[in-house]
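[recover] target loaded
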């Protein structure tokens, strides 16, 4: 698919020097602009907001810290891709180095580099939303009209089995033989060819990233979009002042005449910078209540790899399509995911010759990740803060969530054993070599061995919940309309507002919650 022609209107750095009203003060180029609404961030929530508000006739400006990347930039080089497309080059870590959080930093946010899977949460999720947070009206049968609107922009497909790739198809006979529950995710793609490069950016534009749909639609209605502009602070008032600075892309040559500092004046501000950056921005701006930044949910995951006698080449095919449900009454689930050599090496707990020998087995390895619903009742041991000029991510796994992860690891080991794996790479820091597979092993020792406690190698690809919506200001940072408690005309519209852990990726639910809020906001702003 070709890039939308509207994207030529995006204000990238090489267009700064031609902006009317660009002022110089000493060595600084300063640009000031007044709009009706400024949106900070261009992911699923921010891009949807930009479209709906510009379509309603408001002057909209979107600021994105990342660059505008498109197929001309998407390569198979993982080191290049991680350094350019991901926040902190893919090494966004909790303060105790316990867990890494993967997030995109591009125009389109994580939708540009995610695995494009989409699913609706189950009804028990919304039982907790209602009981704990007083939030109702989001069950699947209650939001079909909103889903239909979203689907009119995003193409929902269930890809055929032949696009699964060997990493996932090797498990299908086992799942059917053991009668284990599994299903296929719907994919946000159009004419996907199963290249397996979703996390590096789609080189054929098959993935439904925001820069392929909502962003060009917003530009059509007059929205202005600036890339490589990092928001430093929001100053509250009848007319709010948003201060931003230019972020140079180290991979690009210097460009003369770029904006150094930007000042945006707007009556309404929408923060859509994601569950880590949104609370960090609000905290350093002195805005919001004590709930801002608390109860961060991460769907913490642990990767297990099976090593086989025959080649797998797991990087081929759709990266994440097959989901395996956990045992009865469990809070874990298993997603297959195709990883590439650099990510493979990062997930190995070994050193020296053992690391070298295992790396040589990459082509013979299959991979899947066990994830848990952390903070089922709304609270977690995770939070985001801003201290000493830096964001801080604090996270610990609760004992119950740790138990659930170990149960999922045991189940995945059983699956790989049944599939014929000769070795299993376990996600424990205290392991020194891959585990030889004994077909008689039940793997129950994984649950009973106390040495595994606090030894898990964890990662997250689904952060959410750090500014929960709630009908009660003591439980959340935003109200039912996503407005920050105690403040006027300041909203949060990204996955940080989802109050409990979902058990699926947050993109669809984020868009539903945001779209429902936008319909009310537009009516309010037009009064």
């Amino acid at each position: 698919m070709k890039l939308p022609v509207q994207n030529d209107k995006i204000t990238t750095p090489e267009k700064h020097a031609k902006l009317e009203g660009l002022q110089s003060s000493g060595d600084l180029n300063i640009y000031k602009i007044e709009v009706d609404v400024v949106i900070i961030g261009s992911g699923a929530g921010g891009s949807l907001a930009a479209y709906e508000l510009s379509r309603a006739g408001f002057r909209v400006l979107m600021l994105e810290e990342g660059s505008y990347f498109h197929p001309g930039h998407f390569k198979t080089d993982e080191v290049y891709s991680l350094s350019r497309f991901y926040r902190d080059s893919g090494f966004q870590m909790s303060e105790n180095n316990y867990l890494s959080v993967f997030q995109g930093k591009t125009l389109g946010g994580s939708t540009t580099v995610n695995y494009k899977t989409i699913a609706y949460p189950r009804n028990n999720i919304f039982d907790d939303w209602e009981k704990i947070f007083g939030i109702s009206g989001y069950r699947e049968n209650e939001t079909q009209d909103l889903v239909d609107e979203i689907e009119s922009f995003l193409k929902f497909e269930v890809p055929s089995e032949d696009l699964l790739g060997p990493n996932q198809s090797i498990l299908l006979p086992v799942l059917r033989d053991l009668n284990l529950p599994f299903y296929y995710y719907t994919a946000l793609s159009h004419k996907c060819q199963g290249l397996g490069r979703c996390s590096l950016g789609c080189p054929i534009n098959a993935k439904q990233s925001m820069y392929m749909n909502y962003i060009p639609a917003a530009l059509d209605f007059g929205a202005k979009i600036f890339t490589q502009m990092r928001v430093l602070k929001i100053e509250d008032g009848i007319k709010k002042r948003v201060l931003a600075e230019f972020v140079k892309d180290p991979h690009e040559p210097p460009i003369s005449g770029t904006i150094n500092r930007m000042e945006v004046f707007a009556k309404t501000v929408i923060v859509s910078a994601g569950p880590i950056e949104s609370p960090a921005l609000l905290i350093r701006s002195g805005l919001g209540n004590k709930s801002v930044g608390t109860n961060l949910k991460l769907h913490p995951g642990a990767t297990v790899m099976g090593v086989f006698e025959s080649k797998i080449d797991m990087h081929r095919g759709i990266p994440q399509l097959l989901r395996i449900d956990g045992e009865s009454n469990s809070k874990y689930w298993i997603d297959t995911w195709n990883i590439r050599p650099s990510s493979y090496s990062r997930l190995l707990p070994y050193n020296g010759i053992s690391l070298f020998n295992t790396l040589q087995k990459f082509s013979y390895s299959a991979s899947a990740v066990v994830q848990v619903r952390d903070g089922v009742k709304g609270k977690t041991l995770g939070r985001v803060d801003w201290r000493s000029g830096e964001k801080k991510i604090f996270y610990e796994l609760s004992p119950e969530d740790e138990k659930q992860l170990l149960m999922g690891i045991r189940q995945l080991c059983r699956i790989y054993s049944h599939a014929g794996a000769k070795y299993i790479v376990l996600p424990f820091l205290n392991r020194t070599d891959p585990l030889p597979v004994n077909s008689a092993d039940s793997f129950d020792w994984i649950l009973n061995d106390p040495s595994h406690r606090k030894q898990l190698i964890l990662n997250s690809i689904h952060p959410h919940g750090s500014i929960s919506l709630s009908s009660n200001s003591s439980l959340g940072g935003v109200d039912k309309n996503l407005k920050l408690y105690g403040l006027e005309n300041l909203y949060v519209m990204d996955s940080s507002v989802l109050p409990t852990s979902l058990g699926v990726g947050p993109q669809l639910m984020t868009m539903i919650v945001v779209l429902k809020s936008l319909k009310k906001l537009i009516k309010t702003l037009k009064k």
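[recover] notes: DSSP finds 13 helices and 22 strands in the chain.
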